[in-house]
Amino acid sequence: MSMTDTITDKLTRAFMPTHLEVIDESQQHHGHSGWREGGETHFRVRIATRHLEGKSRVAQHRAVMETLDAELKASVHALAIEVLPVDGPFELPTAV
To answer: What is the helix, strand, coil percentage profile of the chain, to 5?
Structure first.
């Protein structure tokens, strides 16, 4: 199973999100610290779930990172977390 699939599976089981994107951004960090051939080192998670509503940003990030503790200790070097509103919108804003 790829790391993207593992992260998706663990977050889905833990948070039952209404929206979840797991984006491998490793190629954007080619040659930087923590980068390895084959990627799967730098990820962005965009998640919307009622389980994180009402929590501070620190508590939201802590919950996601605790869920992915084994992956962060083993092979994931960097994880960007975006907690989205459950009711959307989920698209990134377009530049004008």
So the answer is: 40, 20, 40
Mean pLDDT, 10 residues at a time, over the chain (96 residues)?
94 97 78 59 94 97 97 91 87 57
| β-strand partners of 59 | none
Distance CA 27, CA 32 (A): 10
Q: Cα(13)–Cα(26) distance, rounded to whole angstroms?
A: 24
Cis peptide before 17 (omega within 30 of 0): no
CA nearest to 18, candidates 50, 43, 40: 50
pTM: 0.82
Tell me the one-letter amino acid at 37.
E
What lies within 8 Å, CB to CB, of 50 at 6+ separation is 16, 18, 86
